[in-house]
Amino acid sequence: MKIKYNLLHKDLETKARYGNIETNHGVVETPMFMPVGTRATVKMLTPEELYECNSGIILSNTYHLWLRPGEDLIAKAGGLHKFMNYKRPILTDSGGFQVFSLAKPKDITEEGVHFKSHIDGSNLFLTPEKSIQIQNKLDSDIAMSFDECPPASASYEYMKNSVERTIRWAKRGKESHNNLNQSLFGIIQGGAYEDLRKYSAIETVKLGFDGYGIGGVANDGESKEDMYKAIDYSIPFLPEDKPRYLMGVGEPIDLLEGIERGVDMFDCVLSTRIARHGNAFTMEGKINLKNSKYKEDFTPIENSCDCYTCKNHTKAYIRHLVNSDEALGGRLLSIHNTRFLIKMMEEIREAIKKDKFLEYKKVFLEKYKNNI
Amino acid sequence: MKIKYNLLHKDLETKARYGNIETNHGVVETPMFMPVGTRATVKMLTPEELYECNSGIILSNTYHLWLRPGEDLIAKAGGLHKFMNYKRPILTDSGGFQVFSLAKPKDITEEGVHFKSHIDGSNLFLTPEKSIQIQNKLDSDIAMSFDECPPASASYEYMKNSVERTIRWAKRGKESHNNLNQSLFGIIQGGAYEDLRKYSAIETVKLGFDGYGIGGVANDGESKEDMYKAIDYSIPFLPEDKPRYLMGVGEPIDLLEGIERGVDMFDCVLSTRIARHGNAFTMEGKINLKNSKYKEDFTPIENSCDCYTCKNHTKAYIRHLVNSDEALGGRLLSIHNTRFLIKMMEEIREAIKKDKFLEYKKVFLEKYKNNI
Description:
The structure is a homodimer. By secondary structure, chain A is α/β, with parallel strands linked by helices. Chain A is 41% helix and 18% strand. Chain A has 15 helices and 16 strands. In chain A, strands 4-14-13-12-11-10-6-5 form an eight-stranded parallel sheet. In chain A, helix 8 packs across helix 9, helix 11 runs antiparallel to helix 14 and helix 14 packs antiparallel against helix 15. In chain A, 56% of the residues are buried.
């Protein structure tokens, strides 16, 4: 079964939408933050810990799983869900972003991308068809089209050619897709150029996908303004009855700005990556547990938080773990940060239902002063 | 309250004993394997995961906690139990072993040991009184006397002087001990010298402790024969109504040999350390998940195992995590290995109750062929 997006309520004041997505692994509500499990594991966490965070869809990565352990092994295991024992929906990224960010040098041709493995330097070649075939075997609920992610610094000319090629790649990928239980999303590119985003959106929608990603906003170098422009220029041309996914975005402020503009899905490694460096999201902004002010702080990261970490451990203890390079520290912070973003989404969904999204955003940002 | 050891059954054929220990944090059964939480954390695992492994006492370390975060901070937190949120009993090692194994160079005087911190190289001085004072503040259920751990290669003359000093240190530590809720164990040293072990045991028992450690068997260089001799030479002089603790030992074969000789308690970092390198205990011996033969093995580490890891994940998946340096791999293996040793102890206790320890040992060793 393909996914089905149900638009359940539109905020009266903004483009924010409340809805849900029916999948082969349950119904999940939107707007939604998707934790990232690049290598078939959300770093340090078990599936049960993710369920306890009320995770919906999680994201995994075609490029990484292709290289190791290989899509055929995962197919033999019965697909990615069985391999990693995650019982809720999984979305796989196409590998496009990773090829352009991790694997250098690269040679982009009409056929695909030649590059070297970031693991052993071997020569690899990824095409739109190959990316889709890998994802078909991984058997994720949602596959993404293979796209080019040009940097923000790309010239108009380069970006225009790239957008056109990405559309041709999306068409080729769609034609080679042959997993009836897997949905496929197209990806809108075009940088911060209004006409290119519009062109990309219109042409990609013409091909007919089950949902649409807005890409190219989370490379290095894009400003927040560029990100918001990319959304504003794309959204008007996307169908209302399909989910919209802002790729690689996970800062609380950006989740709010994205949702206000009509985005339904987000993913980001940020919540678990900053955890491994001792950082926690709080309603008062990001904090670093290494700070000496938490040395004798025997209170939870957040008194109001319902996560395992806040129910069981103090800042002083987590600080000790982080300072001692004890993995439990990063694990406890990963749980908290993941729950923080998912809980924020729960609250936002309630706010949208009551047409109070802007009020929620205002109250949130008044408290969340730092590091926005 | 001090601990109370209850000897409940003696095996008819060997010196193996079944019993329990009443503590301020519950009653625990012996023989028992104690997982090691050196820095106030059993590496990667939460207290709940340890409870699920049916952990009893866990061990933490005076030397490490003294250096970081400091015993005063832990006292302010309300003691080590509250600091790390472990609700079952905790035993703290005295720091003696770590001073002699980690901190070099060192200068041993009658007063104590001068050495350099393994963290920042600063000059430190640890005495029997200081070790006990730190442990009093940590408020563990069981503190250990500060001892010298000479290497197996030490001469008889050196070992004799060391044993005599360790006895004087035990007396000084006991006199400075002032936590009424904490029990204190003495430690028997003397290497593989029969008369020194006997002397150490008799003189240490004269001082009157709540239990007795047998030390100096898990430095580098001791043979298994030396370990078994150390136990055989010490046990006859230890009182029946106090627990005996073989320090730093955790290989399955050594647990069996120790229990057969009358030991009640064991601790070892092995189960979690080998986990982080991809190894698992099984009834058929130790296995390394990196081995290519597990690449497509979609069965649990052990079908018969009741641990979280075996109930939820396959060897192929764990192998992928280990090969990808994903922390979840070491975590899942740590759970399995900890449960393996604790489950083995449960089975041994049942065997002793039925006077079938030797039969259990024989059957176990017939299967456990490798890496003994």
